[in-house]
Amino acid sequence: MHSDARGILTLTYTSATTHLMSVAQLVELIEQIRPKNERLGLTGLLLYSGGNVIQTLEGASAAVYEVFDAIRADPRHGEVCIVDRRYVDDRSFATWSMGFRNVTAREVADLQDFNEFARQSVGHALVDHAASAFELLETFRLNTA
Hints:
single chain, alpha+beta, Alpha-Beta Plaits, five-stranded mixed beta sheet, 28% strand, Acylphosphatase-like_dom_sf, BLUF_domain, BLUF domain-containing protein
């Protein structure tokens, strides 16, 4: 999978969907985006809970920004906020063209360090809670691998 001289770009963002999505709608969306991600050499993970989205995209910077720009322009997303953007040597989600998990309210409540992040409205002051967002991503990466 492609990367540029700086390494692999990993970009994590949060957003609030403009309408709640059912599990069936989410699965259909993931099935639509996976072929494009595979073609672009992107990997990542998308978590959805009650209209809140946190997603990490990994790959060549041009491919990551192509997909991220499309997400920002998508009317289903509001309050898109980049939480982290950096170059890394290795992917965290190397085997997933796009891992997906619909996170229940109970699962969020069970994550001790995630409680403050979950109380915040997506898109507001997320930089203060970035570590919790990454811990959540890591928890689900390990538990769904």
